[in-house]
Amino acid sequence: MVGHFLAQIDDDRVKAVAKHLQDAVELSRSKAGDSKEFTTVLGTFKDFLANMQVDVPYVIPGGWEGKLTRNALLYIAEKSSDNTYSLTICNRGPGIEYHPSRPDQFKVKVQGSATIQSIPAARFLDMSFWSMTFALWLKSPPSEYHRVETLYDVLLPWLADSVLPTGFALGEAPVFTTATRNNTGFAKNVVEAAKFLMRKQGLPHATIKRVLFDLRWDILKQIHQDLLVVQNPTLPFHGVAPEVVQILAGINLIDSVHGTHNLAQLLTASVVGLYFSSSTCGVCTTFSPKLHALTQHVTHARFPIVVVPLDGSADEFAAHLNSLPPSWYCVPVTEVDARKALVKLFHVAAIPTLVLTDATGAVKTPLGVQVVLGDPTGASFPWLPPYELPIERLSDTEATVLDFAIKQTGLAALKQNDAGRLATDELVAVQTLLQSVENTAKALRELPPHRVADPWTLTEQVPVLPFEHLEHFQTTDVDGYAGNVADATVPVLTSMLDIPHHVSTLAEAATALRHCEQVCQSLMHRAADGSSSSRMALHYEVIHVITTLFVEILPVPHPSEADFWRGEITQAAQVDCLTRMHNLVLTFGLVWQSIDRPSRHMDATRSLASMCALAMYDVLLRNLAVDAPLAMSVLVAKGYVLAHSFCQNSRTLEDTTRAMELVQPSFGVVRGHVLAYFAGRQVKNATPVFEFRMPDEKVEVKKYSATITFLRKLMEVYAYPLIDMNDQNPPSEMEALVDWLTSDATPLAQHHAEFALTRDVVTMVKFLATMETQEDELMRRRTGLRQWQMWSLTFDENTRFRRRANAAVPKLKWEVSGFRGNDQDIADIDVSGFNGRKLFFGEGPVVISPTALPALLHTSAAGITEDDVLHTDTLPLFQGTLSSEESEYLLGYLTVPYTRIPLVLNFFASRDRVMYLFNPSLQALLRAVLFEGSDWVYRDAAAAASDDVITHVPLRKSTLALQEDALEQAMDARVRHQKAGDHLGTMNGLLLNELTHSPDATLGPVLVMLRAITELGNASVHSSDASFLLFMIHLGVDVMRYVSYAAVEGAPEGVRPTLRRLRADLAGQIQGFGLATLEKWRVEAEDANDLR
Questions:
Q1: What is the SS3 assignment for 799?
Q2: Same domain, 438 and 509
Q3: Domain check: are 344 and 411 in the same one?
Q4: Hey, what long-range contacts does 511-515 have (CB within 8 A, 24 or more apart)?
Q5: Which GO terms describe its cellular component (predicted)?
Q6: Is 574 helix (H, G, I), strand (E, B) or coil?
Q7: Is residue 682 part of a domain?
Q8: pLDDT, tens digit, 9 for 90 and up, residues 849-885
Q9: Number of structural domains, the chain?
Q10: Could you report the per-residue pLDDT of 169-226, keeping only the tens digit for each?
């Protein structure tokens, strides 16, 4: 439309702008029915871009058509040189916040036409970019990435090789304008493009202003003409009667019984109806019976109907013709020219359309459909005066828009006149046009009928104006369209007090599992009905409840088999407990997907809770029921253990838990018990079952693995045939085995749920123990850009931000993706769960320690010794915080994990090095030194009395020496080399061990550091010192937890008085300086109204 009106302005430069805009219209009409057609369109478009003329702008349509938002904008592409391009984005609607802006006196103005310059040809001609750009508005139905963020956060920054708005070039004289706020940016975007092109043509600012006013003026003239047509619908059809008669006289009309007719049979009619319809039009199907009923009332001779079919094919026309009454006439489908001419003459833009004429072809009204609906029995036929033929009325919305347009055009005319760009006679002409438009619109305004109820006796009737948009509401009852009324669900609040604090029998454990599951289900139902913030809070509650159950309430089974887990239990109770454990682990994994950036100690707590659940599930599964033992329990008890290796490279349990950062001292004790339980199973040479490996991105299952062997034995017990003998198309042996392993449709899965439950629990625990956030996992697994690689973007609606919470927790989904190997004996399986997330055995924060020397020294060697530190050339200086000598000292201390706590603490406590802890990396390192459990070794009274004594001084061996020992032991299983970890590890963690044996050497440096920070007591909450002080206070609180635990139950009686004395000193420092500082910060933040 803008191009059409600009082309009427008598200026060659403006006409050139109009030509650019009109050329873009053809491209905007492009359609691609499938990917092949879309590829063809892209290939043609690439050739067009490559062959562009230098310094000649080309307008390209763009925008997005999303599920919730939409916008149509224009790109202006220009070839700057043979190797560079520029792209201007013309947009004043959604997305304008990404454009450069400038504050004005009263408001912020933005650059509506923002340009990306100096784009390399290889990047600009990359069809991956243009395919995504066009797909945003071409592809239907819209997907989740059809939104403004895809364009401005992904595509355009890639093209500019910079984030926006810094990627836009401001130029020498940037033009800023006001952003739209009325959701009409798509119209102003075209005007913005026209303004940019006119500036490219060299038009001065004043001329552009006048051109845009003339554009507004011409549009208002067209509106006036349209209003006159609405007022008199026959106006466009004056003089068409001879052409209509000529067209109909030149063809033979037919009817539904294959008779032929001519125009002479219509000459005696009072009214002739030209009915434009189609068999595929639902509205036509509804209207045609009403029109037929009317023609029967007034007789066909007085009111004949001539159908002009607009069917798309011969079959559709045949069906249409057979559905017509025998008395109606029809233009044959073969008369294509006649049908096109009639459509053009009567300006048919929609169907059904019924044009009423007299016998001579003169048009009475083109609104015959409204006439039929208003007089369905023909009581006023042939609708002569005083009968008022219908006309279209303006709705309140349309009238309001016209009023706004009249006011804005009038104000613009006054501004143009004040600026000297509009003559006085032109101003008078504009005023006359505005007055005529206003009067015509007022006459056409839709007013409701004035009805006065009987009891009212008013002396004057006052019309009641309707609410805005009231015409859109039906006056009849519409409750039937709403569906059934949903029952309001009142959340059932389950008391957390029902969960016991301690259990000592198997029956109490079963009760605790049942109550915990009920509490979690209640919380999940409430989360499903809540907002995002409340849902997050409830998910945290679920995490706390399940963690408390598995880590604190239920005791970890003892390796000596002397606990209540081996007590008597029935098969039904056993399966019930296994099912509840499975459900809790599944819920645990689901709510953990809501956590964005967990701290290391929170990540370690999740890992510990899942490992505890695995140990309890294993011991419960191997318990033989007193009434009818499960066949699976019998098999497990004979020499199997549930797999407990983790990460993609199947790390051992001890290796996985070595770097756990546990700030709760009791959790460190529980960690030792879990390790002891599985170590006991290892001593008995139990074979791990369900040990799924993931060499790539899929779970690998081998035909001769322990898991498949276990499955075969279980099927033999139940007498299940591997392959049905009656199967006419039997699968291969490996396909059948994998189907029995993963499918929920097999008899094993349907009648023995414990198999699938165990498979899923082992898999979920392996995933949860070292889980990464989805963002971290995608970043770690990202690959480099490949040539011709298609872009695959997603805004996942199932992420924690956009997910509509669902109380029902779906189970894991196992899908076989293929088979490989020489004998096709290896299956690759995709496992997904937790709202569709694909399970990947990652390496989360729990296994990545800040004290890991290989990472600090940028080496792949495993066994780093002090000699390696002394001779390295890549000492980390932590952003210049440490000198080379200090870094050498610190890393040397990390090579001796059994004494590193006092060494590292003394390092930071001396020479004011506590201030080095301003560095976040050193903060993380110190916390890891203190709270990581490090090497583990089993110690109890029985072990102390055993013959396993130290036969030589334990040495820390190099990587080469360890490899030689492993080779020797592989050649002779009787050989056993003692390791340093065998005697220098601890049962419950390093910090508890140090507090038990050397409390002064451990806590003395901590007190020195806490006293040193008192010099910063006057620091503001907004200063850079605040984060450092908060870290130190937090560190002191966490250390005091361990001291309190050791002073009460974790240390021998002889050490406890010393620990109580040191705890009092530590508490005095924290509760004195720490609480006073926090209170001062609270008051300061409240006074500044800044509680972030």
A1: coil
A2: no
A3: no
A4: 512/549, 512/553, 512/554, 513/549, 513/577, 513/580, 513/581, 513/584, 514/580
A5: nucleus
A6: helix
A7: yes
A8: 999 888 888 887 777 888 888 888 889 999 899 999 9
A9: 5
A10: 888 788 888 877 665 557 788 889 999 999 988 899 889 998 889 888 888 888 888 8
